């Protein structure tokens, strides 16, 4: 008997009809002899609606603890409704909250991280022959306060449970059929990838791909949990995220094109601190307060020093731009900087693929492609398997299409098109 952890996103449980369809999928898996733990998100746009309600009653400043309690109800509704749909089909099932499922987190409301998972209650219910439906996106602190896990929280819940239960796989069901070489809404000829490495998926998720959250991929990678991404709307095959050492895993050996996919994020802002004294401790003075405020910094560029003064630029998510600028302006006064500028009309486009670092020419081809498309590059950052360029937001779609063509991602391994 195989234990499978399945996760169903908000679009998969958006209404009664969709919940019925998910119940049918679970029943089929049970009939095949598998044990099922299903993690569910809130229905459709429920979380957004609850946030808007909270803002209306709190002058746009809801208490963090109370907001987490409120938002956790969305997943609780989904889990109970799915359990009811299974009962109606004669399938024994039980819904569990994050607390009942044994998910312990730290106390950072709205962005909590899972500390431990005690799956004993889940195991007991499985032994009783029940399907276990777990409310995703939520956990409980040592003080018994409800927390939520932030963006992609239900994915993270599912992978954490799969690791704790030693499940054979973690299946992420959503409204897309898998991981593509680019966003199909921008590049219609984008190709679905049958497999992808954890590290490649991590970079794609971090750089803007919405199909999986990077925290969930990180958990899967750390615990060796294969993650299967597919659509709950069809039975089409999806994408398996795993490592090279696993049976059937992707083997990136001397392929002609090491670029796997193009990621993009249209919500980027740049903050520049002008005329910063070029001396030890300045970078720490700037970035430590941002970290304490929970602002994630991405690309960082420091210009060459002129007369012991330099400009320091970095990018943040557009939603964090105002808060980041306020912090940097305050820090700038303490270090006698020359002022702060910001620009929240930027985007980032990235090429991702294992092995690029050891093969010359990828950066050059990327830069040349963008230049030929008339797209100016504002900033550049790289990792071992990624090259990212910051561009104007209005150029995002053209940049993605141009790079997809340049690396011939519409065909496997970038093979030349057949005439």
* Helix-strand pattern: EHEHHEEEHEEEHEEHHEEEHEEHEHEEH
Shape: globular
Q: Runs with pLDDT <50, length 5+?
A: 251-255, 415-419
> What is the fourth-level CATH superfamily of the domain at 3-175?
Acetylglutamate kinase-like
Spatial separation of the terminal alpha carbons: 49 Å
Strand order of the largest sheet: 3-6-2-1-9-11-12-10
Radius of gyration: 23 Å
CATH topology of the domain at 3-175: Carbamate kinase
Counting DSSP H or I runs of 4 or more residues, the number of helices is 11
CATH class of the domain at 3-175: Alpha Beta
- DSSP, total strands: 18
At CATH's second level, what is the architecture of the domain at 3-175? 3-Layer(aba) Sandwich
Averaged pLDDT = 91
Proportion of beta-strand residues: 25-35%
Helix content: 25-40%
Q: Major sheet: size, sense and barrel closure?
A: 8 strands, mixed
Secondary-structure class: alpha/beta
Molecular structure report:
The protein is built from 11 helices and 18 strands. It is of the alpha/beta class and 419 residues long. The protein has a domain of 173 residues: Acetylglutamate kinase-like (Carbamate kinase), CATH 3.40.1160.10. An 8-stranded mixed beta sheet has the order 3-6-2-1-9-11-12-10, sandwiched between helices. It has a 6-stranded antiparallel beta sheet with strand order 14-15-13-16-18-17. Strands 4-5 form a two-stranded antiparallel sheet. Helix 5 packs parallel to helix 7 and helix 8 packs antiparallel against helix 9. The relative contact order is 0.10.
